[in-house]
Amino acid sequence: MKNQKAREKIQQALYDLIESGNQLSDIKVTTLCQKAGINRSTFYDNYLDIYDLADRLKVYLVDSYLTFLKNDQEKSILSLLRHMSQYPETYRLFFWFNLDDQLTKNHEKIKQFAYQNSRLKNPYQHLFFISGLNAVIKQWLANGCQKSPEEIADLLEHNLAKLSE
After folding, report:
1. What CA–CA distance (Å, rounded) separates 99 from 8?
2. What are 123-126's contacts with CB under 8 Å, separation 24+?
3. With 70 as the cut, is the pLDDT of residue 112 above it?
4. Which of 19-28, 34-43, 73-82, 87-96 has the lowest mean pLDDT?
5. Which residue segments constitute the domains of the chain, with CATH numbers given?
6. Where is the Transcriptional regulator TetR C-terminal Firmicutes type domain (predicted)?
């Protein structure tokens, strides 16, 4: 339990440093530990270095996303957006680590929505829509989810309809 709390503090400190504009290569263990309010030895009890922390955090983010998908009864884009609005920090990190390909690769509804949708016959249209979907979600998270998940889902539906005309 003690290690779990330390890891949470470390992850929160990393998130805060990233949000304040730091690149991973610029973050030092000492700075991270000061921000987290822990000793360097506590950091090294849990991680080898900053890159080990980042790698483990990426695995955690993808696992959390996949767990959500597995347990999501609705399996809709709207339910994903609602989940993202509940955990915006997690998903901002998700995009910061360039894990957005996991969204489309693992979300059946998104694949069905874009890839298997017969209205989008051209593969470039699929790519355009998926890139746009990721960009809209990323910007929505960056703006603090000011619009509701329903508004974003409607925007995506509307753009898909326009694209397939």
Report:
1. 20
2. 125/163, 125/164
3. no
4. 73-82
5. 1-47 (1.10.10), 58-163 (no CATH)
6. 116-158
